[in-house]
RNA sequence: GACCCUAUCGUCUAGCGGUUAGGACACCACCCUUUCACGGUGGCGGCCCGGGUUCAAGUCCCGGUAGGGUCGCCA
C-alpha cells in the first residue's frame, strides 16, 4: 500500500515557517514514495477560524509549490475539493465525530462529565514507535496521574483536537503521521484512541522544531516566523524550500544547494535529525542569492517589475527596452527583490539625494574640475556605449594624472546618488547621454 | 512540579569504536575588480561536564548540566 500522508494545519491567520517545513517533509515523502499528500484543515476551533486564515495556508503552500493530491481547492469551507475522503475541513465533519464519540460512549470507553465527553485513558505507560526518534515510553505526568482522562468533546458539542485528529487519520487512511516534535508527548493519547477504535496506529515521524537564532521557541511575533514574510521580502520560493530542506535533514554529501528532484530522490524519514535547529537568516540569504543569480530572464523581469511596483515605482512608464536594459545591469548583484528599488531606483527617477558619506568623500573641491573634464569628455563621445565611456574615462584619468577610481566614484555618486551599484559604464549607457550629462551638471552644483 | 526529546566550530551539518574531526553560511586577510556583488586562495573556530565499557570513545552505557517540548472544554 502506498503511503498516505497529510498536512493538517489549523487556520490561525498565518503559516508558521515550521509548519511550512512540516508540510514540505510530508510532501517530499509522498513524492519520494509515490504516495498521496493530503491537505486537511483542522478548523474545529470556531472562535478563531476565518476564510482569510484558510487562504493564507493555501496561498503559502502554493507559493512553495507543495501541491496536494487531496484536499480543498478553495478557502471556502463548503467549496470544492479533490479526493474521495472529504470533506477536508473538520468543521464540516461533525456527524462523523458524533458517530465516533457515540461508539466510544456505548462501549464504555468514554463518559460524560459536566456536559463534555471524556475519554478513558489508560494509566499504563504507552510505547510510541517513532521512525525518527525511536522507541519512546511515555509515562503519565503527575497531573495526568491525578486524572488521566481527557476531553474529546466539549460541552457545546464541538469535538476536540485529539479526537478529530485520530478519527480523520482513520477515515482518510493515513499511513504515516509526519508532524512537529511538539506533538510527541500527545501521541500517547492518540495511540490510545486508535486502540479504542480497534485500528492500528499509523507510523509516526516526529520532526525537530525550528527555533529562533537565540535558541528560543519561534513564536508568531518573531522575525521570520511567518512564511508570508519571505514572499513579502522578495525571496524566491525555491530558495526557501531548499533552505528548509537543510533544517533537520541532510543529503550527507557536503552539498547545500539541491534541486527539488534530487531532494525528492534522496529524502527519507529515518535520516531526519533528532535535534532542533536554529533558523539562520544569513544562510537563507546566501541560497536566495544563488537562486536569484540564475533566474531565467523572463521571471527575473517579472519579479523585478513587481518589486518596483510595490515600492511605488511604475516601471511601465518607461520603454520596455530601457527597463530590461536597466534590470540586466542589476542581475546577480542583489539578493532579495526587496533590495532592488533602492539598488536601481536611480534609473526611474531624476530626483534623489546623494549618499552623505559618499558626498563627503567624493564631492570635494579638487574633484569638481575633474568631474567637469570627465563630463566634457563624455559629451564628445559619438556613440554613448559602455566601451566608449570606459575609454573616455580612462583617457581623462591619464590626462589628469589620476587613477580611474578618482573619477569613477564622484561620477557614480553624481548619476546614481549611491556609492555602490551596477557597473558604471553600463549604467551610463543605459541611462543615456542626456540624463547622464544632466545629472553630472547638476551634481557639480552640490560641491 | 511531573513526563518526554535533544546535545560536533557562532549557525546548519558530515561522522556510525581507530579521521590531521570534513563541508556550508557568517567572520578575517589577500587576489580579481571602476563600486558593490560574484569568483579564487588562505585563516579563525567545535566533539557540554563527570563517570564507566573497551587495547581504543565525538561515536556505546550511566549520571549531571543545559536547551526544547508536553501535561487545556487550543491545535
List the topology elements:
Blueprint: E1 4-7, H1 17-33, E2 36-39, H2 51-64, E3 71-72, E4 81-82, H3 94-106, E5 110-113, E6 116-119, E7 126-130, E8 134-138, H4 142-146, E9 150-153, H5 161-171, E10 176-180, H6 187-196, E11 203-207, E12 210-211, H7 227-232, H8 237-245, H9 260-266, E13 277-278, H10 281-293, H11 297-310, H12 320-328, H13 340-344, H14 356-362, H15 367-379, H16 386-400, H17 404-416, H18 424-431, H19 433-444
Parallel strand pairs: 1-2, 10-11, 12-13
Antiparallel strand pairs: 3-4, 5-6, 6-9, 7-8
The protein binds one RNA strand of 75 nucleotides through strand 6, strand 8, helix 4, strand 9 and helix 5.
What does this protein structure show overall?
- This protein is mainly alpha-helical.
- The chain contains 19 helices and 13 strands.
- It has helices spanning 17-33, 51-64, 94-106, 142-146, 161-171, 187-196, 227-232, 237-245, 260-266, 281-293, 297-310, 320-328, 340-344, 356-362, 367-379, 386-400, 404-416, 424-431, 433-444, and strands spanning 4-7, 36-39, 71-72, 81-82, 110-113, 116-119, 126-130, 134-138, 150-153, 176-180, 203-207, 210-211, 277-278.
- The strands form six sheets. Strands 5-6-9 form a three-stranded antiparallel β-sheet.
- It is elongated, with a radius of gyration of 30 Å.
- 36% of the residues are buried.
- The mean pLDDT is 95.
- It binds one RNA strand of 75 nucleotides through strand 6, strand 8, helix 4, strand 9 and helix 5.
Amino acid at each position: 500500500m502506498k503511503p498516505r500522508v497529510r498536512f493538517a494545519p489549523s487556520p490561525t491567520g498565518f503559516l508558521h515557517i515550521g509548519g511550512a517545513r512540516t508540510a514540505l517533509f510530508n510532501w517530499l515523502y509522498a513524492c519520494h514514495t509515490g504516495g498521496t499528500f493530503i491537505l486537511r484543515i483542522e478548523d474545529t476551533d470556531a472562535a478563531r477560524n476565518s476564510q482569510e486564515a484558510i487562504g493564507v495556508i493555501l496561498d503559502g503552500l502554493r507559493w512553495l509549490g507543495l501541491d496536494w493530491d487531496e484536499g480543498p481547492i478553495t478557502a471556502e469551507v463548503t467549496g470544492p475539493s479533490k479526493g474521495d475522503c472529504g470533506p477536508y475541513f473538520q468543521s464540516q465533519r461533525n456527524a462523523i465525530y458524533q458517530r465516533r464519540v457515540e461508539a466510544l460512549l456505548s462501549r464504555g470507553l468514554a463518559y460524560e462529565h459536566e456536559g463534555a465527553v471524556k475519554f478513558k485513558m489508560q494509566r499504563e505507560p504507552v510505547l510510541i514507535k517513532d521512525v525518527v526518534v525511536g522507541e519512546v515510553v511515555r509515562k503519565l505526568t503527575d497531573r495526568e496521574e491525578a486524572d488521566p482522562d481527557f476531553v474529546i468533546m466539549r460541552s457545546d458539542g464541538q469535538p476536540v483536537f485529539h479526537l478529530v485528529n485520530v478519527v480523520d487519520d482513520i477515515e482518510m487512511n493515513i499511513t504515516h503521521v509526519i508532524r512537529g516534535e511538539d506533538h510527541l508527548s500527545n501521541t500517547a493519547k492518540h495511540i490510545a484512541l486508535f486502540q479504542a477504535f480497534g485500528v492500528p496506529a499509523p507510523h509516526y515521524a516526529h520532526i525537530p522544531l525550528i527555533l529562533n537564532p537565540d535558541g528560543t521557541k519561534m513564536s508568531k511575533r518573531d522575525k521570520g516566523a511567518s512564511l508570508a514574510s519571505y514572499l513579502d521580502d522578495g525571496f524566491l520560493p525555491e530558495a526557501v524550500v531548499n533552505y528548509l530542506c537543510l533544517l533537520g535533514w541532510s543529503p550527507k554529501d557536503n552539498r547545500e544547494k539541491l534541486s527539488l528532484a534530487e531532494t525528492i530522490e534522496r529524502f527519507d524519514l529515518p535520516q531526519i535529525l533528532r535535534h532542533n535547529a536554529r533558523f539562520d537568516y544569513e544562510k537563507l540569504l546566501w541560497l536566495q542569492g544563488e537562486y536569484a543569480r540564475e533566474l531565467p530572464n523572463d521571471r527575473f523581469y517579472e519579479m523585478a517589475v513587481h518589486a518596483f511596483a510595490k515600492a511605488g515605482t511604475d516601471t511601465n512608464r518607461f520603454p520596455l527596452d530601457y527597463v530590461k536594459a536597466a534590470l540586466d545591469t542589476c542581475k546577480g548583484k542583489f539578493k532579495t527583490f526587496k533590495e532592488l528599488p533602492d539598488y536601481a531606483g536611480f534609473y526611474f527617477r531624476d530626483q534623489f539625494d546623494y549618499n552623505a558619506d559618499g558626498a563627503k568623500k567624493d564631492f570635494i573641491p579638487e574633484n569638481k574640475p575633474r568631474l567637469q573634464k570627465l563630463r566634457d569628455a563624455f559629451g564628445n563621445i559619438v556613440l554613448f556605449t559602455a566601451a566608449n565611456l570606459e575609454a573616455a574615462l580612462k583617457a581623462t584619468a591619464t590626462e589628469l594624472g589620476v587613477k580611474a577610481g578618482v573619477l569613477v566614484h564622484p561620477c557614480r555618486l553624481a548619476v546614481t546618488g549611491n556609492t555602490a551599484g551596477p557597473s558604471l559604464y553600463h549604467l551610463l549607457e543605459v541611462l543615456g547621454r542626456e540624463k547622464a550629462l544632466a545629472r553630472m551638471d547638476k551634481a557639480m552644483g552640490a560641491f
